[in-house]
Amino acid sequence: MSTPHCAEIDRAEINRANSQHSTGPKTPAGKKQSSLNALRHGLTGQIVVMPCEDLQAYQFHLKSFTDEYHPQGATEANLVQALADASWRLNRVAALETNLLTLGTARESEPIAGALAIAAALESQSKALANLSMHSQRLSRQFERTVLQLRDLQKIRRAQEKKDLDNLLDITEMYQAKGETYCPSGDGFVFSQTQINESIRTRNRERLISEAEDYRDRDAA
């Protein structure tokens, strides 16, 4: 019964010993590579908001997409989330590119010296900039595909909603003509009263427009 306990203690000792040998990069080159790894994870991994970024700013960013697309259901909500995340990462790419180019020009005040410093930064950071450009293109394609997918899904959903609302109004008018009250939920309709009222106003407006056009055509004849 004591062997597993001893083995557990041995593993703990080994882990502590290993931790003493793995304290992270110490040289400037190692630290730079580590930072680049973090940037790479921030552009391609599951982390959306990096520790150095403003979580509240991201929340406002996400809300702007939600307010624009008004997602209905889990699938649309996930697509809107994907749009916001891709856009957030694209903004990060732009910020990283700016940081790379201004890193070598921060101390230059003369225009010519600044231009030369930018050219030098472009040359020295060419690999990092090419990597950022690759991520930018990938994220742009991802954003465009997600927009198309979301719009197609919402188009299908709205067409079905309109069809169901038209059926609901037809049934309601039929019951009203007989002096009876119709309960939509009894037939599986799940529209809110606000949606129903808006649909009624739209139908009445369309009828008034049609009647006005008929009157104009008769008057012209």
Topology:
Blueprint: H1 3-21, H2 28-44, H3 55-69, H4 73-103, H5 111-124, H6 126-177, H7 193-220
Characterise this structure.
This protein is mostly helical and 221 residues long. It has a domain at 52-158. 80% of the residues lie in helices and 0% in strands. It is built from 7 helices and no strands. The protein has helices at residues 3-21, 28-44, 55-69, 73-103, 111-124, 126-177, 193-220. Helix 3 (55-69) packs across helix 4 (73-103) and helix 4 runs antiparallel to helix 6 (126-177). The radius of gyration is 31 Å and the shape is elongated. The model is unreliable at 1-11, 17-24 and 31-41 (pLDDT under 50).
Uncertain regions spanning at least 5 consecutive residues:
1-11, 17-24, 31-41
Residue-averaged pLDDT, rounded? 76
Oligomerization category of the chains in this entry: single chain
Number of E-type strands:
0
Number of helices in the DSSP assignment = 7
List keywords for this structure.
0% strand; 7 helices; disordered N terminus; mainly alpha; 221 residues; single chain
Overview in brief:
By secondary structure, this protein is an all-alpha fold. It contains 7 helices and no strands.
